[in-house]
Amino acid sequence: MTDKARPELNGTVDNMEQYDIVFLGYPIWWGDMPMAVYTFMDSCDFSDKVVIPFNTHEGSGESGTYSAIASYLPNAQVLDGMAIQGKTAQEFSSDTQQSVRDWLDGLGF
Q1: Angle subtended at Cα 12 by Cα 45 and Cα 31, rounded to the nearest 5 degrees
Q2: Residues with Cβ within 8 Å of residue 47, at least 6 apart in sequence
Q3: CATH code, domain with 97
Q4: pLDDT at position 1 over 60
Q5: Is the pLDDT of residue 24 over 60?
Q6: Which helix (H) or strand (E) segment is 91 a member of?
Q7: Which domain holds residue 89?
Q8: Which residues lie closer than 8 Å to 17 by C-beta, 6 or more apart?
Q9: Quick check: is 53 in a domain?
Q10: Residue 2, in any domain of the structure
Q11: Looking at per-residue confidence, does 4 or 21 come out higher?
């Protein structure tokens, strides 16, 4: 992680130009997104796309990654993300489901 290595991905998005909105989900590992997420951002053209980040964590929230995504993808519009604790996401209780619905409603979905 400290050397910021970009691992190779097993697959690609062949038709990225067909998408206007991209939900970008990831866990927080050691205070950052996994390096594979950076590889994905490097491998696709996000120009004029709406990017909606969401993540799981174990206490660090979004750890500054939403603003990092906005900086990394300057030609995309990055909307408000949702950070949820990993254990809470796994349980996926009715309260958690409602929180996700409220977040999506707030974004206009």
Answers
A1: 75
A2: 75, 76
A3: 3.40.50.360
A4: no
A5: yes
A6: helix 86-91
A7: 18-107
A8: 45
A9: yes
A10: no
A11: 21
The number of domains in the chain is 1
Q: Residue 58 to residues 29, 61, 62: CA-CA distances in angstroms?
A: 9, 8, 10
Specify the residue for token string 């390096």.
Answer: 35
Pair of tokens at residue 4: 């910021």
Give the per-residue pLDDT at 2: 56
Kindly report the pTM of this predicted structure. 0.90
Positive or negative, the Cα torsion across 25, 31, 35, 39?
positive
Task: Please determine, for residue 3, whether its predicted confidence score (pLDDT) is greater than 80.
Answer: no
Bridge partners of 27, per DSSP, are 56
* Residue 90 domain-assigned (yes or no): yes
Per-residue pLDDT, averaged over 19-35, amounts to 96
